[in-house]
Amino acid sequence: MSDNIIETFEVEIDVNVPGEDKPVKKKVNLAVVKPSVKDYQEAKKIYNITFSNCLNSNTIVRSKMDDVLRAQGLWNDEKAAELQGLQKQSLEKEKALAKGGIKLSAARAIALEIKRLRSEIFGMLSARTAMDVNSAEGQADAEQFNCLVSSCVVYNDSKKRYFASYEDYLNSSTNKVAIQGANILAQDLYGVDDNYEKGLVENRFLTKFGFMDDELRLVNEEGDFVDIDGNKVDEEGYLVNAQGKRVDKDGVLVDEDGDYLVEASPFLEDDGSEVADNDWGYGKDKTKPEEPKKKTKTKAKAKAKAKEEVVSETN
């Protein structure tokens, strides 16, 4: 069985312990193993059931995708030609970068152009990719993979399945064990690499020559983070001014949520008078502390008035 192990990992999970009111944290050692013949057979059953259900509900099949995309105006001959042109440009730029023999600044410009082209290509393919995922085959593929994950995540010591069943995995598909297990199995089965972007030719070049850090963030000669156009950004990629404050594309200050930090004036009624309550939760108003309610004074006044009435009645 050890020969079938793809990768081991350790996670902290919540465990229900008799006598304890709340779940107790516990570290467990798990492994992802290669699917067995039986695992593939069970997964194929899930594929067939899902595919059949999709057909019964009139879900589109892959062979009809192009017709639907064209009917909806999402694809046509012009877009197909544009895509081919972008892909050709990208390959030509990559060849130029691979040949070298040019100034480093020129090579940097080529690498950034490849990034732009790749982004455009990805954008053009997004509609097709989204439809493929939701096609009958796409949904069946996903459920087949889920079934394999449910079988292949095991306890490292006993090699007993971690998930009790396929349904148990589906109910746990958002927890850390399910996510990590799925990532490991996908990498082994489909060659999905967490470092895929780091391996792209333009990113390898930019990282090697100090134009990009290890987290694939572009930097200028001073070491400041910049976007693809050379504008300064913060660690999260938001535009900033010379003082490091977040701004929009026109240089106007914004807060961490993108709301404008401008001097606001009260809204007005149609007769020109100020609206009674102008705080609508925008910009700095949404973060300012609430003013203390004046219930104490109101109660004090009420008590004082009541006392005066009692004294008056007594006299």
Number of domains: 2
- Helix-strand string: EEHHHHHEHHHH
Oligomer category? single chain
Number of E-type strands: 3
Shape label:
extended
Structural classification: mainly alpha
Average pLDDT score: 88
Q: Which strand order spans the largest sheet, edge to edge or round the barrel?
A: 1-2-3
Helical run tally: 9
Major sheet details: 3 strands, antiparallel
Stretches where pLDDT is under 50 for at least 5 consecutive residues are 286-290, 292-315
Overall helicity? 40-55%
C-alpha termini separation:
98 Å
* Proportion of residues in extended strands: 5-15%
Q: Whole-number radius of gyration? A: 30 Å
Question: Would you mind describing this structure in some detail?
Answer:
With 315 residues, this protein is mostly helical. It has two domains: 2-7 and 33-198, no CATH class; 236-315, no CATH class. The protein has helices at residues 37-56, 65-71, 77-99, 104-133, 136-152, 166-171, 176-190, 201-208, 295-314; strands at residues 5-15, 24-33, 153-155. A three-stranded antiparallel beta sheet has the order 1-2-3.
Q: What's this entry about, in short?
A:
The protein is mostly helical. Helix content is 46%, strand content 8%.
Name the descriptors.
single chain; 9 helices; 315 residues; three-stranded antiparallel sheet; 2 domains; mainly alpha; disordered C terminus; 46% helix
Please describe the topology of this protein.
Blueprint: E1 5-15, E2 24-33, H1 37-56, H2 65-71, H3 77-99, H4 104-133, H5 136-152, E3 153-155, H6 166-171, H7 176-190, H8 201-208, H9 295-314
